């Protein structure tokens, strides 16, 4: 589904900037997502990637958007012909058990987590996903906006230390917010 098919939901419509971000989000995650799957978007914020998941999963899929900011979650909507999106106000670093998911998406959220390895191991134990999709800035040094960057090289090292499958870089593009590239990487326990 193209970005032009985004739902004009409770909001009055999508701005051109939102359409561009929507297309970017879909391009980053498209290779990992299959129609009809169930995904949780951890640290969903106002829903750029939750909406991208909704569009790619289609009506037989499901999205669970999780963030501790209830006001941000209130902005999230599904897309026309897309998967329904449910929201849960919670800190994704301290989640209770959730229904089984086909995948977990952490898009621009791990760079806010102090102990990324502990966080990932906790998620693996809690949710038993078949795949984890990471979208992060490919930076080595932190900033105000990306306090604890997770470069692709660092993600590879982290996965090796956890005994996880090696991450596969799926896509990469220039960031619209940082002077860096943003990448998506899939960690899969099953063939996807």
Automatic annotation (TrEMBL):
Taxonomic superkingdom: Bacteria
Pfam families reported in the protein's UniProt record: Methyltransf_25
Xref: InterPro entries: Methyltransf_25, SAM-dependent_MTases_sf
GO MF annotation list: methyltransferase activity
GO biological process: methylation
Keywords: Methyltransferase, Transferase
Domain Methyltransferase: 41-129
UniProt cross-references to Gene3D superfamilies, sorted A to Z: Vaccinia Virus protein VP39
The organism of origin for this protein: Deinococcus psychrotolerans
Name of protein: Class I SAM-dependent methyltransferase
